Structure formats: structure tokens, C-alpha cells
Amino acid sequence: MKKLVIYLVCEPETPALAEAAVEGGADIVELGIPFSDPLAEGPTIRLASERALARGMRTKECLECIAAVRERVDVPLVPMTYAAILEAYGYTRFVTDSRAAGATSAIVVDLPVEEHADVPRIQLVAPTSTDERIATCVANTDGWLYLVSLTGTTGARDDVSPALAGLVERTRALTDKPLYAGFGISTPAHAAAVAEVADGVVVGSRAVQVAVEGPEALREYVASLRAAI
């Protein structure tokens, strides 16, 4: 079965929202640790990150949030953050504390694959990645590979990136590891199209938008994605 990954920003309401997402059919929950300069993020997640920071969600509070999510769900939990956060908190300390909180891996958007092998993490590749770069990421990824379907920032788009199919083909030629695709996926139709070529679908910005409406709205939205894939 194709996997469905739902992204949420760590906030006080996130444990209940994550539980609703899993009830709706999410296989993995990605939990964003807010950062003041989220280079990869579009306006939706950037705004959510600013809101979370204004509410006092720092690394310690986010780890507590992850632990609270873990008490409610038994699916893999993947914190997503930036190298500056780990630099300030301590790389080894973050790995130890996040695992203790219930995280199963991590995504560090701007940490080059060659650096900090002591941080097990899911590697990202994009349509601009060379085959050599993809092979390096494959060799160093933790479980699955995150395919960034387009160049640019996160955010809902009208259509699935035409570059995705080629990226899946190139990456599949180099590995049998699961390939989950994200960026720009917001509707059930998008999810269905991505699931035709990739092993899983990652939905972020639209999930964050729907989450503002509460757990029930998020549960229904995730269920519509699950039904589509």
C-alpha cells in the first residue's frame, strides 16, 4: 500500500491533530520544529512557524510535543528542522532526546549529506540533483528517501510537478528503498497522481491549513487523501 505522510508544525494543539491525522489514514507524521528563517518553506508553513515561535515553541517544547504525540499514536514520527536548530541544541543531544521522545528518524532540510553522519536522517533529493548526488543520498538515508518534486519552496500548487516522474525514474534506477514525494501536493487528485509513480505521498502546507480548522476537519481531509491513493 502506498504510504501517506502528513506534516504538522509543533504547537500545543498538535498531539490531538496528529491523532486525528492517523485516524484519517496517515502512515507517518512529520513534525516541524519551527525556525525563524525556514528557507524551504512557503508562506503557509512560514506563517505557522512564526505563530509557533510566538507561542514559545522552542526545541525543548517541541520535543515535549513529540512525546505527547507519541502517547497518542504508534506510527513513525519524523521531526523536521534546520541545521541551525541542531547546532544550537547539540547534534548528538538532539538525536538522543528526540529518540527518547518517540521520534523514529529526522529530516534536516539544509544539512548536507556529507556532514554529521552521527545524525540519522531521511535525505532529500530534487529534480536538480545529479545521479551521483542521488546515489550518495541513497547510501546515507535513514529508511526512505524524500523526493522534492519541484524546485522552490513548499506550498499548494495547481498541478503536480512534471519533473517528478523523471526524478522517480532516475532514483529508482539507483535504489529499492521507498521513495516518498512531497512539495506542492494538496488535493486528492494530486495525491493519486503522485502515488502512481512514487511509493508514498507527503502533504504539508495544505494539511497545516486544514489543521487550523481543528482535528475533525483534518481527519476528513486526510481520509480523502487516503481514499485517493
Arithmetic mean pLDDT: 93
Q: Which sheet architecture does the biggest sheet show? A: 8 strands, parallel
CATH architecture: Alpha-Beta Barrel
Give the helices and strands as they follow along the chain: EHEHHEHHEEHEHEHEHH
CATH class: Alpha Beta
- Give unreliable regions as ranges: 152-157
Secondary structural class: alpha/beta
Question: What percent strand?
Answer: 5-15%
What's the CATH H-level superfamily name? Aldolase class I
Q: What is the radius of gyration computed over CA atoms, rounded to a whole number of angstroms?
A: 16 Å
Helix content: 40-55%
For the record, the count of structural domains works out to 1
In CATH terms, what is the fold-level topology?
TIM Barrel
Q: What overall form do the CA principal axes indicate? A: globular
How many strands appear in the DSSP assignment? Answer: 8
